[in-house]
Design a protein that fits this description.
Elements: H1 2-22, H2 25-39, H3 47-84, E1 90-93, E2 102-109, E3 114-121, H4 131-147, E4 172-177, H5 191-194, E5 202-212, E6 215-225, H6 236-250, E7 256-259, E8 262-263, E9 266-269, H7 276-325, H8 330-342, H9 351-364, H10 369-378, H11 383-398, H12 400-432, H13 434-456
Antiparallel strand pairs: 1-7, 2-3, 2-9, 4-5, 5-6, 8-9
Length: 459
């Protein structure tokens, strides 16, 4: 299992390492130097180790960029293949009975024009016993069919459409015009309705009876006759819309039906659910956010390291004071602290103790105490460590008694600083909790006020 992990890790790193090596040397050195400066205060390592860590960080960023762009390219190619494999005919799936209507978005496109149209698919109709619910739906559809080529029954200038039945409805329909001089039994206009002059209009009624088994439904439709208007040439889009509506009505007893994607000069197609440009933009934004997150973690690492060093400072001063006050020399005290640090149960590494471990190694290799102590203090960016290094130099120069007093004073001062730091961190934590507390307060207010508001509105 470990071998497979190593193989997968190597495959993932190879492209990024190749990109890093092929990058122009000046740019590679500049990026490495910038990352190395950010890492100098975070790890107790030599310059070469820090440079290697910086290169590793850049390779990880390269892995993210390469595989992110690769995944994005695969998604774009898959989208293009999917769009190319779509069937030439459009298939519309209708909802089953009881699920309501469904709208299908279409794009009607010719060489010069493009129009979006939303086609409504009615549900598959079945006979039901709820008479009141069926009446409104039935007569509404019947009114549209009766209008025929007219815009509505309130503006009739052409013959009406009197069909004996409606598609998917089991009713037998009969029509009885109140005035046959206006509208005849077959739906054509009578003499009075066909010879209207401009500005004139006639209102009449048609009694409609729908019968099926024991149900007899009746309704009077008000018809408003107006003079015939001269119609211009029908646009291609209007013709396609009319044909789509007619096909939808004629196939309501079917769960799906097929239409041709090309009708004359007009193309009919579905709008793309995900466009390549949108997918490319979203993928680029995600990759950019991940890169910014890594850079932000790199920048925040130095701040976290400095806070950790300040928290460890009182402990280090206390241990040095304890061991040197017990009669140990400075190298022996440093070695004892390093041994205790290495034998800790949790094994967690901290920057300050890693520097003490590094100073212990230099002392055992024969470096002078003063030089090792000064180099140790310079490795920290916090002034308190530099002050501690100078104090230790004074202890080495003045002897045990005066040195003990200096270390005791330094210990008291360090714990006062630790108390101030704890107070500051507590205030920061309270500020960070402010927003969640406001959100919880809003939720509590909603829970308390909703019953009162609901009761006041009569729910």
């Amino acid at each position: 299992m470990t071998g497979w992990k190593e193989i997968c890790r190597g495959i993932g790193r190879k492209p990024a390492e190749w990109m890093f090596r092929k990058c122009p040397r000046r740019l590679r050195v500049k990026l490495t130097e910038r990352v190395r400066r950010q890492m100098e205060g975070q790890y107790a390592e030599s310059g070469q180790q820090t440079e290697q860590r910086a290169e590793e960080f850049l390779i990880k960023e390269g892995i993210l960029i390469f595989w992110g762009m690769t995944l994005l390219a695969v998604m774009l190619v898959s989208l293009a293949v999917y769009q190319s494999l779509e069937p030439s005919s459009l298939i519309f799936e209708r909802n089953a009975f009881g699920e309501g209507e469904k709208e299908v978005s279409l794009i009607l496109q010719s060489e010069e024009q493009r129009k979006e149209y939303s086609l409504t698919l009615g549900e598959r109709s079945l006979s039901r016993e709820e008479e009141d619910a069926l009446k409104e739906e039935f007569f509404g559809e019947l009114e549209e069919q009766m209008a025929g080529e007219n815009t509505s029954l309130h503006s009739v200038d052409q013959e009406l459409c009197f069909e004996d039945a409606l598609p998917s409805w089991p009713f037998t329909i009969t029509y009885e015009p109140k005035d046959t001089a206006c509208v005849r039994l077959d739906g054509s206009l009578g003499e009075r309705g066909a010879n209207l002059t401009e500005g004139g209009e006639v209102t009449t009624k048609i009694a409609v009876t729908a019968e099926y088994g024991d149900y007899v439904w009746k309704k009077d439709f008000v018809i408003r006759l107006v003079p015939e208007k001269k119609k211009g040439q029908e646009s291609p889009f209007a013709r396609i819309v009319r044909q789509l509506r007619q096909a939808e009505k004629e196939t309501r007893d079917e769960s799906s039906y097929v239409i041709s994607p090309q009708n004359g000069d007009v193309q009919i197609r579905r709008p793309q659910r995900v466009s390549p440009s949108t997918l490319c933009l979203l993928g680029s934004v995600v990759i950019l956010l991940l890169l910014l997150r890594n850079v932000s973690e790199l920048n925040n690492g130095e701040k976290a390291c400095r806070k950790e060093s300040l928290r460890d400072f009182p402990v280090i001063v206390h241990l040095l004071t304890l061991y040197m006050g017990a009669g140990l020399s400075f190298p022996s005290a440093v070695h004892r602290i390093s041994t205790d640090y290495q034998s800790r149960a949790n094994g967690r590494k901290t920057y300050a103790f890693e520097e003490i471990l590094r100073m212990d190694t230099r002392l055992r290799l024969g470096e002078a105490q003063q030089e090792a102590c000064m180099q140790w203090g310079r490795r920290f960016k916090e002034p308190v460590y530099q002050k501690l290094a100078l104090t230790l130099l004074q202890v080495m120069a003045k002897g045990t008694r005066e040195g003990r007093a200096l270390m005791s004073q330094m210990e008291q001062e360090s714990f006062r600083q630790r108390l101030d730091q704890a107070k500051t961190e507590g205030e920061e934590a309270a500020t960070k909790l402010l927003f969640p507390m406001i959100v919880l307060l809003g939720m509590v207010m909603i829970l308390v006020m909703f019953p009162a508001i609901a009761r006041f509105q009569g729910f």
